[in-house]
Amino acid sequence: MTTPSRLDVDREELGRDLVALVLTVVELLRQLMERQAIRRIDQGDLTDQQVDEIGTTLMLLDQRMAELCEQHGVRPEDLNLDLGPLGTLLPRD
């Protein structure tokens, strides 16, 4: 009877990959929120104050994402997963 061999896992690499996955999801949500905000601005649904607040919030969120990527050694382009025939997860700006 043979025992199943253990998977040799590099904990540091695993942690970095998990951080990259979480940051990918956050970046996807950030981009979706940005697109929705732009649609609402274009429709004229928001006051000037609301437009300013949204702009400031999105700018701060973008800065924080850049900080988190740098802090964890993840490049922003690493967050754009290749989905094979479907293309990439995040649109290329």
Automatic annotation (TrEMBL):
Keyword terms of this UniProt record: Gas vesicle
Pfam families: GvpK (PF05121)
Nucleotide-binding among keywords: no
Protein's cellular compartments: Gas vesicle
InterPro entries linked to this entry: GvpK
Keyword match Protease: no
Domain of life the protein comes from: Bacteria
Family note: Belongs to the gas vesicle GvpK family.
Protein name (Swiss-Prot/TrEMBL): Gas vesicle protein K
